[in-house]
Amino acid sequence: MQLPFTETEFFDVLAAYNTALWPAALALWVVSLAAVLLFIRGGNRAHRALCALLVAHWAWSAIAYHAAFFTRINPAGWLFAGLFVTQAWLFVWFGIVHGRLQFSTGRSARHVLAALMVAYSFAYPILNLALGLEYPRIPLFAVPCPTTIFTAGVLLAAQRPPWILMVIPVLWSVIATSATVLFDVRADFMLLPAAVLLVVFTVPEHTARFHHHRVAPD
User: Fold this and answer.
1) Three-state SS for 133?
2) Residues 91 and 97 sit within 8 Å (Cβ to Cβ)
3) Where are the domains of the chain?
4) pLDDT one-digit tens code per residue, 108-165
5) DSSP code, position 186
């Protein structure tokens, strides 16, 4: 697949982004880690706070990465920014306004995979350094791919999240995989497993609910 930008241009954009905004990206990493640890310690009382965190991640990737930097090398960055803003709005609507996102902890396969996915997103910058990429020409935290992986982990811990919340993360996982393969950003190989897990663990729930409503008596 031919991309509209070169490998050099791609990593140059990351270098410009990291140089300009690394304090904010580091702060988002610290705040995200603190929020997740507080949720684990405090039980199931911080649902809207986690939703607000997801809003911040997707809005940041939309504006600070896609619109401000990625559009320099790819006009489709404006479309991607729109998708990420849309995802942020969906978290506002379903998670904050209507409170339809409820998260839980546990030892089920879904919860274990959720924890592993979230942990992977926090380790993402270290993995990229360990795999041979050099700062500042490197994707760290608070850019689209680790944002998507982090989101997948959080949604796996949600109780029957609305299916529409899965569409853009799964779509981005497919879109971003081309650059992952061509530019050998090996930490991003987790994108497709993250998308598969979202589909595997959420589609059956919604299918079962649909059949239940169809067979339920009037």
Assistant:
1) coil
2) no
3) 31-203
4) 999 999 999 999 999 999 999 999 999 999 999 999 999 999 999 999 999 899 999 9
5) G
